[in-house]
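Case study 2.
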Amino acid sequence: MEGAACCSTSTSAEKRKQRQNQEKPYRGIRMRKWGKWVAEIREPNKRSRIWLGSYTTPVAAARAYDTAVFYLRGPSARLNFPDLIFQEDDDELRDISAASIRKKATEVGARVDALQTARALHASQPKPSRVSETPDLNEYPGPENSDED
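Prediction:
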């Protein structure tokens, strides 16, 4: 009996993990009921959080989170997109406030959100088709179409 309970628990844990991965594709973000993606991060050694913004795409929210976590924890931070972080001078990393972290993260997130939205809009627009009239090969040429002059 105990073995059966053990297996069912691991199965439900796996299902929960799958559902969580579907809902949260990136670290530090979540989806609102109405479809917007939000990012926030907890300040080190405090109970307060830094609000990083609300975005239309999960990638933009994840990039905002990456920017904030990089400024808070430095190069050792666990990032969603480690190759895309822009490293600045070490002087800026040492003394940075929550307000300046929020500002930098929202700038990055807004920029990525605009690019992602524009890219999605461009991809969803129909491609212009070439309008060419194909001649009806069963029709006799009229006087304006004939080669006789």
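The first helix runs from residue 2 to 23.
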